[in-house]
């Protein structure tokens, strides 16, 4: 697997910006804490997760729903758990 460039990692922070303030706060807090530790797989998983619409993502982050389909992977679940812990 190819190593992600710094540009690709910077794009993650840009994609994390959300329309709902609640999502933005949760994700920004997570990235502030863990961004330097994220693996390339984590960055890819988060990029995929950020494809969800704001309301669906908020439901998952607030533990009102669980990831389904292509979002139901062990790595995405681990990252969601970290975000839920705040």
Automatic annotation (TrEMBL):
InterPro entries: SDH, SDH_sf, SdhE_FAD_assembly_factor. Belongs to the SdhE FAD assembly factor family. GO terms for cellular component: cytoplasm. This is FAD assembly factor SdhE. The keyword Chaperone applies. The lineage of its organism: Bacteria, Pseudomonadati, Pseudomonadota, Betaproteobacteria, Burkholderiales. GO terms for biological process: succinate metabolic process. It is found in: Cytoplasm. Keywords: Chaperone, Cytoplasm. Gene3D superfamilies: Flavinator of succinate dehydrogenase.
């Amino acid at each position: 697997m190819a190593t992600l460039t710094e540009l690709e990692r910077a794009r993650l922070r840009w994609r994390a910006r959300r329309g709902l303030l609640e999502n933005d706060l949760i994700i920004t807090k997570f990235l502030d804490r863990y961004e330097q530790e994220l693996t390339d797989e984590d960055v890819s998983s988060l990029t995929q997760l950020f494809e969800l619409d704001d309301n669906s993502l908020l439901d998952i982050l607030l533990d009102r729903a669980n990831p389904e389909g292509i979002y139901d992977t062990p790595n995405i679940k681990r990252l969601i758990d970290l975000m839920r812990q705040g």
